[in-house]
Fold this protein.
Amino acid sequence: MLNPWFLWSAIFNTARLSTALQILIFLPLTLATISRQAFLLLSLMLTIHSLIHGTMSLLWGSHALSVLQVPMHPFLLLVCFNIFSSSPNPWLLTAADWWGTLLTLSGPLFIVMEGLSSLLVVQKLGQEGKRLVGRGEAYQFGLLIATSIAYVASAWWIVDSYPTAASSPLSSTLLGVAITAFLFLTVIGFALRRTNIIESSGLAVFIAYNVWLCGFDRKSFTDPASSYAPLLPNILPHIQTLLNFVINTLPKPVLIALLYRLTILHLASGILPTIGADSWESEEGVDDTWSDRPTSMLTRLLLTYRQSIFVTVYSHLLLLDHSSQIWWRWMNIFFTLVIWSIELIVSSEDGIDEKDWKVD
């Protein structure tokens, strides 16, 4: 007989996966088959629903909510399709336009969150690596090989992406400035003994990833809805059409950027509760007082409303055209480098004892 806990866990995880897949498919489906305003209206409705769901989870805390919300996304999609099947209400169109403006203006916020989270994660990796080095030469040798691979892979990634990422004189100039600034800051960090090769190699991979996205070749896709056949006698063509839509219409650069942004935000949210720990506190905190930290409260809010973050980040990425995404990538690179430079230069000597992992 199946364990009830195992059965419930399978249902809960399936419901969460189904919810994520529905959001991933429904938003670009609406944008590709109806209009930009329909897409914005569906995004607004999904965001409102996710805020309500997050609030109920915060107050109630039951996993049953994840199962109960599964039919909500198809229902909202049908509502959106029904609204735009005839002349939509002007108030709904106005709300969709305002939501699109808000998403566009939120671009700098998303860049700040991604840059800070990336820097926080690579610094945490540097901290953990420094602790492993103290355990023996085997760890030190292994980390040295890992960082060497990261440096070489980053250099190869940048060189391979150069023909498309530096397609204009301005882009090639920005790439040269970014690499020069990174090398310059790395040397300063080593000279001041406030960084290590693990942190530096992590930022090298971050820069290479953004440069690669700047040169991502976006191929033109054919219209997936151009050849429908009657449903009952031709079920296979419909399945093939749906499969072609999922493969060709979901924008691959957007999905990669979405996966990275959500992953880095999730990792950073796990690091936030440790920020601000006093030097005499252990890693696990003292008397479980870390739950009272403001950063712990922020982490709880981020995890509670992660579906809202998912919808807004995904909607914002879908709204950007290729040229806009390129400029946001360059802004992300330089913003992260500026924050890193401030952290390296402003850090006082008194803080080295608390952050001994930054000293080689």
Remarks:
- The first helix runs from residue 4 to 33.
